[in-house]
Amino acid sequence: QVQLVESGGGSVQAGGSLSLSCAASGYTDSMVCMGWFRQSPGKEREWVAAIYTDGGNTYYTDSVKGRFTISQDNAKNTMYLQMNSLKPEDTAVYYCAADTDSDYAWEDPDAYGYWGQGTQVTVSS
What we know:
By secondary structure, this protein is mainly beta. It contains no helices and 11 strands. Strands 2, 4, 5, 6, 9, 10 and 11 form a 7-stranded mixed β-sheet that branches. The protein has a 4-stranded antiparallel β-sheet with strand order 1-3-8-7, with no helix packed on it.
């Protein structure tokens, strides 16, 4: 099994930056893809970005392209989300997730079998 713990959330002014971390433990060799999702009140969970652990291919939802960067340090079993030029609409609870079944459905939350508890990101205008 895989355990995921997010950190790095907080409050920031619009235009500012935050860096989120997701530390993975357990059977981390099984992780094929890791992703970031976010959810705000009244909305469905939204895919933000994904990265494949072998090769490092990355994918982003259109609303964060050019502003967010997903990365990983496989030696540390840690994934990161660098968020720049933050906007109020980025306010949400951010979750990291891990996929172990190689289905390559990086946008689909149902494809991810493991989730962290989330970290709150609040962007003020």
